[in-house]
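I am still getting used to backbone structure tokens and would like to learn alongside you. Would you supply a protein for us yourself, any chain you care to pick? Start from the sequence, derive the backbone structure tokens from it, and show both lines together. Go ahead whenever you are ready, and we will take it from there.
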Amino acid sequence: MTTTSALERTTWDGRLDRWSDRLNPIVVKEVRQALRGKFFQWTFWATISLASLVIVIQLLSAGAGGIVDGRKLFGVLFGCLVVAVHGLVPLWAYFSMSSEWEEGTYDLLVLSNLRPWRIVTGKLFAAGVQAMLYYTAFLPFLAFAFAAGGIDALSVAFVFSASLVFSLLSSVIALDASTLARQRLWRMILLVGLFAILSVGCWASGFAAYTILTEPALFVSSEFWLAVGAMLTIGLTLGAFAACLATARISHPEENVSTPSRVVALLAVLGLIGWLAFARTKTSTDTPVVACILSATGFPCLFLLSVVWTTEADTLSRRVAAQVPTRVPALLVAPFLPGGGRGVLFSFLLHLLLACGVYGSVSGLPPASVGWLPGPDGATGFAFALAAYSAIYLFIPGAIVSRAQYAGPRARLVARLVILGVLAFGMAVPTLILGLSGSDFEHSFRHPFTPVEGARIFLEQSVEPAQRATYVGGLALFVIVGLFANAPRIVRAVTEVREAAGRRRAQRLASGNTTEPPLHAAPQP
């Protein structure tokens, strides 16, 4: 028996060693440093002491009857937990990344064999481990409150799951914020802003959790689950973009930092189209309204992302060129690879995809019965108008400033500021001129350079069809001009990908011919 037990223990020790080797070393390093650090120790025991004090105060206030309000006690204890996992844990994540520059260990971290995404995910998982420690420590207190009655198990399980997701989202946003600046002054400014955002997040999440705990009837409402699904989609998308940005900020300039954000953007657009299709199956009469709301939020986000993609360096880096896929046509691979010309192509395809998705979701629906509600034609026209305005303000100024070749970070920053400046100038200056000339507040925004006029043209039913057709023709003309201005960049971008794939195939064939022995060679003994 002793020999068998020793053998089993040796086997398990070997498995644990192999698992620890495969585990992200950043997780092990950060968890060890956190458990030994003063920040975690002081905040951990402070929150535990606060929870114990809340229990004591509640028991003393119960009096001789010994009746404890379980719902109120659970809400207060969960509020303490929310402060810990939604405030203190993300702050630790911010300090964890910013300390790499503060202590001068960033260069050693980058020189290691760890990829940037492993560094970001390692620090994020370490924050998740700390959050789980808080949940485990608060479990006895919350179990006591649950035993006092007043709340149901489904509500508790839901708020715990939502709290963990929100904690991870807050942590990845904090990690992203910590990579935006390396100077101490800017890091302090970012810390103040992050503290304000986390404070609002703690208040909002605590209020939402208390509402769910006190109103369990929400779980039988379909609108509640729709809202939960929409918030989860937004949260996952925001977290994915934050992780992509944090990874890009700590990556080597030769690395491919553009493809992950483009893939996430494509998935987000497909998610928006999926929500529109779902809205049509549930409430077809409100689908045009939902389509207009999603268009008004989706296209501005696409514009801001496209400003970054279209102002990247046009030429592929040597490392990215050496990793171009060879089994997929260049025209399909090119939009996802970094480069300004390829960014123009990808941005145009995303704008077109979202506009066509809106058209597909509202096509065939009956016109709106109420005058102020947008119908299918209005929602489709509104989506294509926003897509056209985004493409015009993106492609035409981008083609003009693309001659700078975006050789360095400063040139790319200037190009992005120029595009945003043209957008601000085109929307604000005519508005100011109309306002100074005596027009009222509503009419001062009605000029062809602002999407507000496009929304009015397509959403107001009093607009004549001829005027609407003229407006569509004008927008389409400027979009075509922008595409033609960027056509040389797009052609060069696709050609570069095709040539890189050809070089990879040639190198693969050459290496195969050199390693393969000739047919007439005599076998070696």
Q: What stands out?
A: The radius of gyration is 29 Å. The CA atoms of residues 234 and 472 lie 32 Å apart. The longest helix spans residues 465-515.
